Amino acid sequence: MTPSSIQQAMIANIDFNWTPYNDKNQYYRKNRQDFLLKKLLANAFKLKKDKNQLCRQNRERKAFQ
After folding, report:
1. 3-class SS at 19?
2. How many structural domains are present in the chain?
3. Is residue 54, in this structure, part of any structural domain at all?
4. pTM, whole model, 2 decimals?
5. pLDDT, tens digit, 9 for 90 and up, residues 18-44
6. Which of 7, 23, 4, 26 is nearest to 15 (CA)?
């Protein structure tokens, strides 16, 4: 690609209605990041809970033996 064709492609992709408020992609991208972070944290807490539960079960099993 020549520099002029790159510039033409950039100009062709300009959205003249763009404002920070109607840039839906940015909004969804941020929400997606928040969602993924919350999901990650939830999984981490769930794993910790599962591990605690396993430890408790093992302690009880040893106590009964």
Report:
1. coil
2. 1
3. yes
4. 0.39
5. 555 656 666 666 777 778 888 888 888
6. 23
